[in-house]
Amino acid sequence: MRKVAGLFATAALMVSLLGAGTVMAAPTDGASEAQISAGFFHQENSDSGNLNADLSYGYYLTPAWQLGFRQALNYNFIDDRRDVWIATTAPFINWHFRLTDIVIPYLGAFIGLAWNDRDTTGTVGPQAGIKFFVHESTFLNLGYRYEFFFNRFEAIEDNASRGNHVFNVGVGFTWGGAPSTRRP
Question: Which end of the chain is more exposed for a tag (fewer CB within 10 A), N or C?
Fold first, then answer.
C-alpha cells in the first residue's frame, strides 16, 4: 500500500511539473540568474564529515545559452587530524533545452582554478542538471559536475579518471531580460 501511495505521489508531482501550467517561468534573452546550493555529509559513529557550498551567477545570452561564474567550497572535517578544504573558482557555459517553461534541463562545461592554503591547480569538466521552476523567477536545481584537476594542459587527459563527482541541490532566482512573447 505504501508503494502505491508513493507511486501516486510521484505521478502527481510529475503531472504538476510537466503539465500545462500557466507559469511562464523560463529565462529570456539578457536575464540574470543567481543560485546557491549546499550539502553536508557526516559518517555515522565518527567525528568526520563534509560540507560543500556553491554560489553562482549566470547571464543568458539567449534563452538556451548561459555564461556564468561559480565559486564553490568543499570542507572536510576529519577526526583527530587537520581539516582539509578546497575552493574552486570557475567560469562555465550551459546550454538549456526546454521540456516545458517549468522543466529545463541543461548541459555544460567549465574550466577554472582549484585552490586551498597549500596549493593551486587547474580544474575542468562537464556538468549537467535540471531546473524546476516553482515560480516565475524561482527554481530548484538538481545538478551534477565532474571535476578533474591538472597542473599542465598536457596532464588533463592523464587525470580525467581521478576527479570528483559533485552532486548538488540548490535554489536559484532569475531577473531581468527581454519580456516573454509566449502566452499562457
Answer: N
Is residue 18 assigned to a domain? no
What is the per-residue pLDDT across 3-14, written as a single tens digit (0 to 9) for each? Answer: 545 545 554 455
DSSP 18-64: HS--S---S--TTEEEEEEEEEEEE-TTSS-EEEEEEEEEEEESSSS
Of 24, 25, 88, 96, nearest to 59 (Cα)?
A: 96
C-alpha cell belonging to residue 131 = 531546473
Residue 129: CA count within 13 A, CB half-sphere: 23
> Which CATH number does the domain housing residue 167 bear?
2.40.160.20
Residue 130 lies inside a defined structural domain of this protein? yes
| Domain of residue 170, residue span | 28-176
The 8-class DSSP code of residue 143 comes to: E
